[in-house]
Write a structure and sequence with these properties.
The chain is built from 3 helices and no strands. The chain is mainly α. The chain has one domain (7-88). It is elongated and about 45 Å long.
Length: 89
């Protein structure tokens, strides 16, 4: 069942996603620092670009496109700060 978000709901969701994606970005950089040399992280730049793009969408006051939003909601649904109301978007 799909539901309409109030502006407060949208802001809370955007804040939640911004915090989670920022944490993900930090983990990517930390893993990169620990794997320098021939065992480095191929594809790091594209991973960072995806997170950066999503953070840019959120910073512009928008939520990600539906497909991306669903993937994020599924991925973060077990996080303690996840609001169960978001599961039905």
């Amino acid at each position: 069942m799909s539901r309409v978000l109030t502006s407060t709901d949208r802001q809370q969701l955007a804040d939640f996603l911004t915090r989670r994606l920022t944490e993900e970005l930090g983990r990517l950089w930390a893993r990169d620092r620990s794997r320098r040399g021939p065992e480095g992280r191929p594809g790091l730049a594209s991973q960072v670009a995806v997170l950066d793009d999503l953070l840019g969408v959120l910073a512009a006051g928008r939520l990600p496109e539906r497909h991306d939003l669903v993937v994020l909601l599924v991925g973060y649904r077990d996080h303690p700060d996840f609001d169960a109301r978001w599961a039905h978007l």
